Amino acid sequence: MQTYSAWSLLRHAFGGRQGWTPQWRRAAPKPQYDAVIVGGGGHGLGAAYYLAAEHGLTRVAVLEQGWVGGGSTGRNTSIVRSNYLFDESVRLYDHALDIWQDLAQVLNYNVMYSPRGVMMLAHTVHDVQVLKRHVHSNRCNGVGNEWLTPEQAKAFCPPLSIARDIRYPVLGATLQRRGGTARHDAVAWGYARAADALGVDIVENCEVVGIRRDAAGAVEALETSRGLIRSRKIGVSTAGLSSVVIGLAGVRLPIESFPLQALVSEPVKPVIPCVVMSNGIHAYISQSDKGELVIGAGTDAYTSYTQRGALHVNSHTLAAICELFPALRRMRMLRNWAGTVDVTPDRSPIIGKTPVPGLYVNCGWGTGGFKATPGAAHLLAWTMAHDEPHALVAPFCLERFRDGRLINEAAAAAVAH
Amino acid sequence: MLTIVCPYCGSRPEPEFAYAGQAHLARPADPGATGDDDWSAFLYLRTNTRGVHAERWRHLHGCARFFNALRDTTNDRFVATYRIGEAAPAALKEDRP
Asked: Is the model's pLDDT at A417 over the cut of 60?
């Protein structure tokens, strides 16, 4: 693996930039692996990397039906935070946040993690009570989150309107300073490059069409568009397509897939210094390092695999953004798109074992999977290597729906995770 | 934005409607005698079909009535809409997981 540094940049500049090699091999699938990850997004590539780096598995493959990072990894709004309500969630998401801190150094790849602060707005008395409860819950778990008055919120994010005469005035806000953004593509590419350097085969254009089980019911092979691939450990990390892929093994998941849209403006000079979210009026915004305003909201209403959404959903979001940031009213939007998100009944993920021996799942992240990328990858790898759920993901098992142990972040924040 | 044919009112734009999830779910007749697995399946397991999906809609800002629809979730095209109580048009229904 070529190491990236200021020195290598300089050296290759003088060499006419001819010396750079591809960041990972274009691998062809082998007939057998110790472990296979289905899904070449950040979660899947990361899991393969940790299987190789921390658990010593050398024969590992990642199968991706399209191209690396082309699914939900390339379609999200790249927000990173951990200010969830329940203890189990806070520990899970904060584990990811801990890994984000030095991920760029570990991978030798600039993932552009920028802890610029995540601010969540309260517009009603109910919002105020709910968000203050989040602050207290987070602080009990040792996670930084603080309450801001409208004036403090405006001082932190000057373009924010705190006028009292708008339909949903800002009554206060929470601020998680360690939250922020990262570069979504770089996360996938960084993990792909680091995993490849450890011998992981990253196989693109390889769609899984069947999961073969032995007489005892355990997984033994994957039928793919590029032939049969044998493995006794299979991890599925396929976001919106999770119920389809896991369904190949005869397992049903409590998941529905919805379109989630986002849009970006033309690039402008720095104007939004942090991430601002409003669950109450369904909008969030941040600014990429390139200068585009990155805007998103809740999902479309109906289940769909189209990776398309309706314009009136975006219009609703932009109406909210224009009210919160009057200065942006004449901004032009450059493009919009949608991804498919896998939503669980309690809006918490499902990570761990399935009823099928050797088949592991990491899904149900719904609208908020990006922030968890390094944590979910790390914990899925641990769970696959030990064949038992890591303590942090044990509460997020599939059985919680049968046992009535939901981790109901849906009630805590129904949209804009 | 989708155009949806309400079986009572005719063709209307999507914002008049509310989506109401998978259709033809039957609540277990005797919940007390239903085991945990079956009960949680009733509560939480949905087909999440990639293909033609039977689902409920409500013409909220119109006649306010619920009705059923078959929609292809790979292209969002409505195959048929029909009234509550009617069976799904069998010839059109394609069961793909």
From this structure: no
Mean residue pLDDT across chain A: 95
Written as one string, the DSSP assignment of chain B is --EEEETTTEEEEGGG-EEEEES-----S-GGGS-HHHHHHHHH-----SSEEEEEEE-TTTT--EEEEEEETTTTEEEEEEETTSPP-TTT-----
| Per-residue pLDDT at A92 exceeds 80 | yes
Using DSSP's 3-state secondary structure scheme, residue A202 falls into: strand
**Angstrom distance (rounded) from CA A121 to CA A157:** 12
Q: Which residue has the tokens 């709004």?
A: A77
Q: What is the pTM of this model?
A: 0.95
Would the pLDDT of A199 be above 80?
Answer: yes
B71 touches chain A (CB under 8 A): yes
Chain A residues within 8 A of B46 when measuring between CB atoms: 254-256
Split at pLDDT 50, 70, 90, the class of A306 is very high
DSSP letters along A155-178, please? HHSTT----TTSSS---EEEEETT
Q: Tell which residue, A338, A390, A374, A366, has the closest CA to residue A96.
A: A374
- Rounded Cα gap, residues A170 and A172, in angstroms: 6
Q: What are the backbone angles phi and psi of residue B36, rounded to the nearest 5°?
A: -60, -40
Query: What integer pLDDT is reported at residue A416 of this predicted model?
Result: 44
pLDDT level of residue A312 (50, 70, 90 thresholds)? very high
CA angle A336, A340, A344 (to 5 degrees): 135
- Asked if B97 has any chain A CB less than 8 Å from its own CB, the reply is yes
Contact A305 B74 (CB under 8 A): yes
- Residue B3 in contact with partner chain A when CB distance is under 8 A: no
Q: What is the mean predicted confidence (pLDDT) over A169-197? A: 97
Other Cβ atoms closer than 10 A to B30: 6
**Cross-strand partners of A265:** A333
Helix, strand, coil tally for chain A in percent (to 5): 35, 25, 45
Rounded CA separation A42/A24 (Å) = 15
Q: What is the ipTM of this complex?
A: 0.93
Q: What is the DSSP string of A324-339?
A: H-GGGTTPPEEEEEEE
Alpha carbons A281 and A79: distance in angstroms, whole number? 18
Q: Which of residues 306-365 of A touch B (CB under 8 A)?
A: 306, 308, 310-312, 345
pLDDT of residue A415: 45
Contact A402/B at CB under 8 A: yes
Quick check: B92 and B52 in contact, CB under 8 A? yes
State phi, psi for A115 to the nearest 5 degrees. Answer: -75, 75
